[in-house]
Write a structure and sequence with these properties.
Layout (H helix, E strand, L loop, with lengths): L2 H18 L2 H24 L2 H34 L1 H48 L1
């Protein structure tokens, strides 16, 4: 190593030491210390038996939901395979068709009544015309 290199290293070291003593660096180091303290507190709370139990309960609940989802998928597949869903859809369409047919039957009944009244009116008119 040359004397020039040693001077440069010494100069850089002094600059770093001076920088570590600056207010900005001190604030940054204090923030890092607070963060490290907070992380330690979180780690300690995660190791607390009550927290471990809660985490285990959440894991169990998540597994139960997953299991229920898988069973529901299986049931839906069985219903599809059995044709129950298709039959139910057909029945729903049939009921809807019958309901619409009933409405049109009501319209048909009204039309028949109206037609009968018209025929009566025409007969009455024809009878009046014959007597005149």
């Amino acid at each position: 190593m040359k004397l020039k290199d040693i001077r440069g290293i010494s100069s850089d070291s002094i600059k770093l030491i001076t920088e570590f003593g600056s207010p900005g660096m001190t604030d940054s180091l204090n923030k890092l210390k607070e963060i490290a303290s907070t992380v330690q507190e979180i780690t300690a709370s995660l190791e607390d038996p009550e927290m471990v139990k809660n985490i285990e309960n959440v894991r169990s609940a998540s597994e139960a939901v997953q299991d229920a989802r898988d069973r529901t998928k299986g049931i839906l597949a069985q219903l599809n395979d059995s044709g129950i869903i298709a039959e139910t859809k057909k029945m729903a369409r049939s009921v809807k068709s019958k309901r619409e047919s009933f409405k049109s039957n009501q319209d048909l009944k009204e039309m028949i009544v109206s037609l009968k009244e018209t025929v009566r009116s025409v007969r009455t008119l024809v009878a009046e015309l014959r007597t005149s």
